[in-house]
Structure formats: C-alpha cells, structure tokens
Amino acid sequence: MSTGVGEESIPRQPTSRLSMSSRAPPFSVQAPTTAAASATSTQLENGRDQATDAWPASYHYYKDGSERKPLRAVANPVDDVDNFLEAQFSLGRLNGMLKHLWFAGSRRPAMQLHFQVAMGRQIVLADRMDLHLLWDSTGRLFMKPLPTFLLSPSDSPTSAGKDEALLLRCSETARSVALGFLYTYACLICSETDFHMANQMYLLPRKDDDSTIKWTAWKKLAREILRMHDVEKVHPRFQRAELRMSRLNTIHRLTGLSAFDPDVSSWNNYSSLFLDNLTWISAATILIALVLTAMQVGLATDRLKGDQGFQRASYGFTVFAILGPMCAFGLVVLAALLNLTMDLPVLFRDMRALARASVHGRGHQRGTGGTSSGLPP
User: Fold this and answer.
1) Three-class SS string for the chain?
2) Rounded to 10 degrees, what is the CA torsion of 8, 13, 19, 22?
3) What residue spans carry the Low complexity bias annotation (predicted)?
4) Cα-based angle 292, 260, 63 (whole degrees, multiple of 5)
C-alpha cells in the first residue's frame, strides 16, 4: 500500500459517458483560478508556463518503485509530467490488498463531513492518495485536499484539447483513482455546513487572494460528479469509503508476511515501535492466560484429571504459553535492530554530507574573508 502524501481544484476524468473527441471539459465548473491546468512541452518552451500555475511547486515520489524512506525524492512536476501524474494518483501498497479491503471497511459512500466531526474524528490533511479517508484508533481521519490541477479550466478555448492530451498520458488505473477520489468529495460535502467546514479546513481550492469557490458552483459540480458516477469506472479502493488503518496493517502483515512492517506506520521512534507491536502481543498474552486458567480448572475436575489427551494438550499449550510471548518479544527486538541497521547507513551518509558542507563552508569563508559584499551589515 506509501505511498506517498494538496493542490487546489477539482479533477477531470475521461469516462465512457464523455466523448474525448468532443473536446468538452468534463465539468462546467472550473477551479477558482484563471491559469490552465496543463501544458505541453512546446508551450513551456515558448514561455507559456502560466499554464502550470495550478500545479504544485514540487512533488515527492519514490525511486525504483520502492517506498523505503532513503529512496524518496523531490522533483519539479513540469520536468516529468508522466511521473508526476502517476505519483499523484498512486495508491501504493493498497493496490496489493484490494481483495482484502472488506476487512478494513464497508462498501458504502463516504459519510458527510459534519458527521465525521460529530463522531469525534479529527480531520488531518495528508496530500497522499493512499492515505485519503484512512482513520486510526486515535480518531484521526486523513484526507487529501482537492487539487486544483484536476479541475478543467473552461475559460481558455484551447485548454480542453491540451487537457485531453494530458489525461491520455495517465494510465487507466490513474483515471479510475481520480474518478473515485472526486466521488468521495461529492459524498463528503453535501450541505452548506459541510461546504463551510471544508473551506475552513482548506480541503477545497482557493484563489491567490484566498477566496473560495462559491456554494452554488460546488453544488453544480457535485451534481455533475454524481450524474457521471459509474461504479465500473471507479477504482475498487474507492468503492469503500473510510478504511481502518489498524486493519489495513493487519492485512499487510498477513498477506505481505511482514509482521513488524505495517503498511502505514504510526511510529516515528523506537519507543513507539515497541508500543505499536507490543499491543497485539499483550492482547494475545491475555487470551493465552484465559485459556490456561480454563485448563487449570479442567485439570481440577474428576472427569478431566485422568484424561491423557487433555493432559497432553495442557502440557503442549503450557509450553507454548511460556515460549510464545518470549519469542514474539524477541522478534520485536529483532525488528528494532533490523530497522536500526537500515537507518545507520542513511545516518552516516547524512553525517558525512554535513561534515563536507561544514568544511566547504569554512573554506569559502577563508577565501572570501577579505572581500566586501557591498551590502549593509
């Protein structure tokens, strides 16, 4: 499932209900901006980079398809449009768990935004598609803000064709993810209460002067999204709305054979690592203690006292109760040591880079110590 991590606007997505040859924008409501949402390389070479104003300043992605933190990189979206689009619509490890998502969430639309807050959930902005509508045991609900570049600008008579070319560069999976993402917002923001809350939380696009999209425009857009909605065109992940993060981690552990490497880690230090993994060990230990207590009561009865089968089962389970938690704790320690060995090369690399920068800085100061910059102190 990283993978990885808002802009401002509302997505356009080609579906069978919209003819790409018609060169008509999928939505009649555009983002609150006058800049076009895409541009070809020829436009950029001609200096028309205003067409990319709706794009983010930069984006994060993982090299070589890996999502280990040492391989994370930052790039300019204009330099590699294809990679930028794939990163924006990437569901990371969730793609490998689609058959098991029934365990993490029901097949239903997303609940209204005001009801999410009424349930005590804290809305946390996370500009990553794989984290959108994931919630954890602390009550946090992660939401990806609606990016501006996904809305088709209708104020430029030539932009439709260029947007069309850009969308055709996306994979079918990326387009289905964008459709599902849009649909979640149509479900989340139903009333004026939801709309005003979304604006306060910076979930919806804004202009450069910080003004928001109008309620009437949002109603029109949401109704168009609902009219165009086709379950067959939506990515399977978005056929289920809110997903429980702890259950996603359980799915990842069971299907990925990685018991101590959760899909979405809730720890960022070693004490949190132990706390996260020892929770389920403690729960298992309590269950083992209950079984041992029941066996002890059984051995005290006349009927089971002389039962050789029950005696052997009790003996085997007793040995398991002694060794099981100890082995599990040992695996947690081993996982911590493994993470430490993986972090050490990165730590040493950063220390060497810092040392080189420090030496270079001192050399530069010595070389320019006698010159004046001409600037006031």
Assistant:
1) CCCCCCCCCCCCCCCCCCCHHHCCCCCCCCCCCCCCCCCCHHHHHCCCHHHHCCCCCCEEEEHHHCCCHHHEEEECCCCCHHHHHHHHCCCHHHHHHHHHHHHCCCCCCCCCHHHHHHCCCEEEECCCHHHCCEECCCCEEEECCCCHHHCCCCCCCCHHHHHHHHHHCCCHHHHHHHHHHHHHHHHHCCCHHHHHHHHHCCCCCECCCCCECCHHHHHHHHHHHHHHCCHHHCCHHHHCCCEEHHHHHHHHHHHHCCCCCCCCCCCCCHHHHHHHHHHHHHHHHHHHHHHHHHHHHHHHCHHHHCCHHHHHHHHHHHHHHHHHHHHHHHHHHHHHHHHHHHHHHHHHHHHHHHHHHHHHHHHHHHHHCCCCCCCCC
2) 20
3) 33-42
4) 170
Q: Tell whether pTM > 0.70.
A: no
Distance CA 186, CA 85 (A): 22
Residue 246 phi, psi (nearest 5): -65, -35
Q: Which two tokens stand for residue 28?
A: 């009649």
Burial (CB < 10 A; 0-12, 13-18, 19+), residue 324, is middle
User: For 219-238, what is the mean pLDDT?
Assistant: 92
Q: 140: closest CA among 121, 127, 126?
A: 121
Sign of torsion over alpha carbons 126, 130, 133, 136:
negative
Amino acid identity for residue 107 in this structure: R
| 141 strand-pairing partners | 123, 135
Cross-strand bridge partners of residue 72: 62
312-359 confidence digits (pLDDT tens): 999 999 999 999 889 988 888 887 788 778 777 777 777 777 777 777
CB of 148 closer than 8 Å to CB of 6: no
In this structure, are residues 302 and 230 in contact, taking their beta carbons and an 8 Å threshold? no
